Amino acid sequence: MKFTAQQIAGILEGEIIGNPNAEVYKLAKIEEGTEGSLTFLANPKYVNYIYTTNATIAIVNKSFQPEQPIKATLIKVEDAYQSFSKLLEYYNQIKLMKSGIEQPSVISEGVTHGSDLYLGSFSYIGQNVKIGNNVKIYPNCFIGDNVEIGDDCVFFAGVRIYSETVIGSRVTIHSGTIVGADGFGFAPQEDGSYKKVPQIGNVIIEDDVEIGSCATVDRATLGSTIIRTGVKLDNQIQVAHNVEIGAHTVIAAQTAIAGSTKIGKNCMIGGQVGIVGHITIGNGVKIQAQSGVGKSLKDGETVQGTPAFGYGDFSKSYVHFKNLPKIVREIEDIKKNNIK
Q: Which residues contact 291 (CB under 8 A, 6 or more apart)?
């Protein structure tokens, strides 16, 4: 897909300096620009690259005044960074602008859907599924029975949505993620074996949620596992049965949350965090990467470590920990001197 400088300037309301018919078909960082690519200059630290880049078109701030000849056609805008972001969003919308039902695919009895459905090949829609408007379901997806999906959702290739799941509007789920699989519920028996406890709840995902690739959100044993409005989950995250994640909380990759834990709104949780079950994490909590949380946390706390404790105390303790070999030697020297 090609765009001219004239078309791009029209989208961004920018001023063209150079060839309005210059064409681009790809995006590039300014230091890696090649023929046919579009780039931008926002950070003054990269200004030298504007004179050497081989990009065909560059978006720059209106305040930029070249000091040397520039090969690229320039598009001047109020804010180059925001304009480039706007262009990325526009490009992404065009790229995702698919519609129609590809074959082979299966739409079971009782399914209803709104306008502009895209269903990729080799996908399966179970019985009595309700799908809103402008939903994009890419190839090799599975949607189980009685699932409800709101408007403007995107499920990339290989997503699995188990039965009874309820999904709001503007939800994006990336490839390989599984929503609604059984929670990890097993009851120990007298003979030492474990008997599976039926998991008959569901998962509820509210509006404006994004879930990365290869994440897993388990259905509740009873009731619902709930992902509230605006939550953002990174790749490879485990959300166990009956967990609730509050609105606009963000969680980085490889974090695991055990069953029935409640996480508040506007929390920030780093990568590789482990959180035990049946505790409550307050609103606005920050948990640093690789922490192990074994108890409830109050609103606004910032913690680190395993077991996790106050971030300030952790930082002070870590200084002493790094110096521990030196401290031990000093103690041993004191003991020797005392013995003498």
A: 270, 273, 274, 303, 304, 305, 306, 308
241: annotated active-site residue? yes
Instruction: Provide the sign of the torsion angle of the four alpha carbons 317, 319, 324, 328, taken in this order.
Output: negative
**Are residues 260 and 243 in contact, defined by beta-carbon separation less than 8 angstroms?**
yes
Distance CA 183, CA 281 (A): 21
Catalytic site residue from 113, 174, 241, 248: 241
Instruction: Residue 280: name the closest of 300, 302, 260 by CA.
Output: 260
What string of H, E and C letters represents the secondary structure of 216-264? Answer: EEECCCCCEEEECCCCEECCCCEECCCCEECCCCEECCCCEECCCCEEC
- Whole-model pTM above 0.85? no
- Helices 5-12, 80-95: axis angle to 10 degrees equals 110
Residues 220, 200: Cα–Cα separation, whole Å: 7
The model's pLDDT over 159-204, given as tens digits with 9 standing for 90+, comes to: 999 999 999 999 999 999 999 999 999 999 999 999 999 999 999 9
pLDDT score of 340: 58
32-68 per-residue burial string, b: 16 or more CB within 10 A, e: under 16: ebeebbbbbbbeeeeeebbeebebbbbbbbeebeeee
Please, what are the domains in the chain? 3-95 (3.40.1390.10), 100-314 (2.160.10.10)
